[in-house]
What does this fold into?
Amino acid sequence: MWNYRSLGYEDAELINGMDASQFIKNAWREVAGKRQLVEINYHDKDWPNGYPYHLEHLRETIRSGGEAIGAFDENDNLVGFAAINRDVFGDRYRYVLLDQLFITLEQRGKGNGKKLFSIAAHQAREWGAEKLYICAGSSEETIAFYHAMGCREAAEVNRTLLENDPRDVQLEFVL
It folds into this structure.
C-alpha cells in the first residue's frame, strides 16, 4: 500500500530516484491532417526532455503555489507523483494544468496513477477550476490511461502549451 503526501520544495529532487523510462511501440501522430496510431518502436531511457527539465517544472509548481503529490512505497521511496499548477487559464472554461504525472517503471499498471490523478483532480476542484488540462505524451499507453480516467480532447486548446510540444495530445478532464 502506498502513502500519499504533498511534496515540498526540498522533496523535488526525490524524483531522481524514479525510473521514468518507457518503451513506446505506438504513438499518436498527425498524418495527412488526421491523428492516427503510428508504430515508432522508441525506447525513451530517461525523463522526456531530461531530468533537469522535470525537476525545474516541479520546483516551479511548488514555488508558485501549485500542488505536488508524492506516492511513497512501504520503504518511503518516491514511486510516483502528480503536479498541478495553480494558475487558472482559459476563455470559456476555468482550467488548471496537470503539469506532470509519473509512475516509476516497475510500479506502473497497479492503479496508483489513477489515485494520483484523483487526488490532483480533487485539489483542482477545491481551487474552483472547472477542468484539468493535460498535455499528454502521445504514446498509446499514455493516451489510453487518460481516456480510461475520463479525459477527452480539450474543448479549448491552449496554443502556448500546444506549441511547447506539438506532438502532445491536448486533453481535458471535467471536474
